[in-house]
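ugh ok fine here u go
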Amino acid sequence: MLIKSLNKILFLFVISFLLNGKISYCQSDFIVNKSHLDYLYKDIVVDGKEMAIIHIYSNAPDYKYVGDDDEGYACVDDAARAAIFYLEYFKAYNDSSSLYKYYNLVEFLLYMQSENGFFYNFIWEDNSINKTFKTSVAEANWWSWRALWALTEGYDLLMTPEKDRSTRVKKSISQIIENIKKNISKEKSEVTIEGIKLPDWLPFQYAADQAALLTIVLSNYYQISEDKDVLEYLNSLVKGIMMMQINDLKCEYNGAFLSWQNEWHGWGNSQAYALLKAFEVLKNEKIKTAALFELNNFYQRLFEIEFLSSFSVSKTDCNFEIIKSNKFSQIAYNIRPMVYALLEAYKITSDISYAMQAGQIAKWFTGKNPAGEVMYNPHTGIIYDGIENENLINKNSGAESTIEGLLTLLKISQNQTALKSFQSE
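structure:
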């Protein structure tokens, strides 16, 4: 215990020392440093079962843990994403400690699954589950899809000789898949908002961003199960996402997939990546064409204007009009989905321009952003929570920003073309 306490004190001292001034960043310093995420990670024991959590917030200047009075101190949303990072880090570097963390975070996800098959999101400091707050109830929402994402990404590793865990993982996946099938409507109709026809069968009132995450997990699930019933639901989600793409040469944001109703927002905008993942299952060229249309048009425009936070549109006849547009705030969760989509496009097409573009967009972390500030400290692993405006950086470093940033940088590091582009001056 004394050694752990001294290590934590030393860690906080180093962070405080390094952050007295601005971070300097040399491209030769590049490393995927998971030290801060390891600091947010914590092994716990609940009812005799070993598992792990990720602290949700860590605030400057000392980066002590911070919880939330309404929600709790840890959640499935962050644990699932961290599990995926540790899984990918293990695959990249054969790091046994990361595999250990992945397994323990999976145990936490299993602990958080409700009898109804969905997942609760938050836990309190005493490790009891928050079952009532609106961002924590066990329902068809982000945290349930993310839990399934983490379980399906590492499915082969979870099917180990440890039969107890394998059995529980299979049961968990089966329960949530059955719920997904019940929640994707087979009846298809359209609604019109601001002149735009939208698919009413997507989750959460025409939410293409949630549909994208569902598309990713169902694509994963089909590849591990070959459950042909899933293909109908996958096709349904894909059709809905594609309906929400702007196709208007006169529109500045031509090619963008709307996120929710008539709004686009940068965070979690994984539609292009999801379509490319679905293309690998469904083999429908129209799906690939739609995804690449966003990458070739909208992504390029986002890079030119140093990114956006959100915008909303209306449509008259065949023309889209921008109602409002917000540049801030910008967060790591805006950047990671773009990099994932570009590198998936490179994987499918072998067109190096996509990998090069991924490297350029990832420079957001090293100062190619509206504030001209380095957002990732390679010496500590801290990734700032966001850019509030050209002159203000949110220097907190919570779980979401840390994990989304590390996922981005790890993905870049595994592609030599993207890495070379990222490291270019």
